[in-house]
Specification:
single chain; disordered C terminus; 19 helices
Length: 412
């Protein structure tokens, strides 16, 4: 049964998930993609749109693997899926650097990375957190998912340094070493969560018996509000972040300075994770989401100006990072509270697919928009609207189902 001392007792689970997320496919490819655009454009002659198609293909292949990952996690557990996929991530990053000299080969290597590392997505790690934590679930999710903030803070500078000192191929090899370094930590600290029925008693136990399965959840309006709301937000986040470095260098900002600013994104991602986690344990999560996911509209408007004001860039980056830091915490928490933990992995996996679909199509959409228009202005205005509309939609979710009612979940 959950106690107020969950974090004190179960901190190794949070540490394991933190480092697993930090070195997995959620953070590293996304926060470093913009650092490879310039070198590939200069050496290979690939346009920004062409280069960022790799991330879209990587995302779509990863999405195709999501239902399988959810099924494997529910059936065999978190540990075998996550630990195997961490080794696969290392192989996949190495292939991106040295697997091919052609654009099509680069795309193929991105697809292979998605397959080999599919189990390092939040599906695995949030299932572990949800299985071990109840009263402090929000904060535990925030601390664990802050691993993507660690990636956002350190990886851009790491990649920029490796590229400057050696080559972009070596930078990918450097990324390949990170999952290998984290693997022993995860192996030592991650424990398999107990069955849902083992950590619930009384009314909660009867509620867990009626947690909706995936088809039932998909008939709920709440499922589609979460899906469409976060899809809109993912388009804004997914398009903005990988294009920050090219956007800044176009405005005359030195590449190293732009990389440093994007590295600072990691601090706001971590802050967003922790703030969201702390708040949703105390306040109504959709309300928290509506505020935190709408504020990057200000960033999009600032970045859309013809002349970027250096004084406003840290604010623009910080607000985007705040939302990027909150999104996975909020999706995971909303699924666990509105649909329960019994079929969590499958339900979360499908919503994660929707989110990542938006994040996957957005980078090349922004890139090709720039290739055609010579500016990011109009697409950034569209992103501002997406932030506001997607965040506002979550306010319609209503109160959490009452765990004392055996019919609460089924009646959604």
């Amino acid at each position: 049964m959950a106690t107020p001392l969950e974090l004190t007792q179960r901190w190794p689970i949070v540490v394991a998930c933190h480092f697993g997320i930090a070195t997995g496919v959620t953070g590293l490819p996304f926060y470093t993609l913009g650092l490879f655009v310039g070198p590939l454009e200069a050496e290979r002659g690939w346009s920004r749109g062409e280069t960022q198609v790799m991330f879209t293909l990587f995302t779509f292949v990863g999405l195709a693997c999501v239902p399988l990952v959810g099924t494997l996690v529910d059936r065999y557990g978190v540990r075998p899926v996550a630990l195997t996929s961490m080794l696969g991530a290392s192989i996949g990053f190495a292939l991106l650097g040295y697997g091919s000299d052609s654009l099509s080969g680069y795309y193929l290597c991105g697809a292979l990375l998605a397959v080999l590392a599919a189990g390092t997505s939040p599906i695995s790690w949030t299932r572990a957190i949800g299985g071990w934590f109840d009263r402090q679930r929000g904060l535990a999710l925030g601390l664990a998912l802050a691993g993507t903030g660690l990636s956002a803070f350190l990886a851009p500078a790491y990649v920029a340094w490796l590229t400057a000192q050696f080559s972009w191929q070596t930078a990918y090899l450097g990324l390949a070493t990170l999952p290998l370094l984290a693997w022993p930590v995860v192996y030592a600290l991650l424990r398999e969560p107990p069955p849902v029925s083992a950590i619930r008693t009384g009314a909660q136990s009867s509620a867990s018996e009626t947690d909706p399965d995936l088809p039932t959840a998909m008939r709920s309006y709440r499922f589609w509000v979460i899906a469409l709301g976060f899809f809109a937000v993912s388009m804004g986040i997914g398009g903005s972040i990988p294009n920050l470095v090219p956007l800044m260098t176009d405005a005359g900002i030195a590449r190293a300075d732009a990389a440093a600013l994007v590295g600072g994104l990691g601090l706001s991602v971590i802050g967003g994770r922790l703030l969201a986690g702390w708040l949703i344990d105390r306040l109504w999560a959709p309300g928290v989401a509506a505020v935190m996911l709408a504020v990057p509209a200000v960033s999009a408007l600032l970045l859309a100006q013809e002349t970027l004001a250096p004084a406003t860039l840290p604010l623009a980056v910080a607000l985007i990072g705040l939302a990027a830091g909150a999104e996975f915490d909020l999706i995971a928490y909303l699924v666990s509270r509105y649909f329960g933990m019994t079929h969590y992995a499958k339900i979360y996996a499908l919503l994660y697919m929707v989110f990542m679909f938006g994040a996957g199509i957005a980078p090349p959409l922004f890139g090709y928009w720039y290739d055609a228009a010579g500016s990011y202005r109009d697409i950034l205005y569209a992103a501002a609207g997406a932030f506001v509309l997607g965040a506002s939609a979550l306010l319609t979710l209503g109160r959490y189902p009452d765990p004392r009612s055996a019919q609460a979940q089924a009646s959604m």
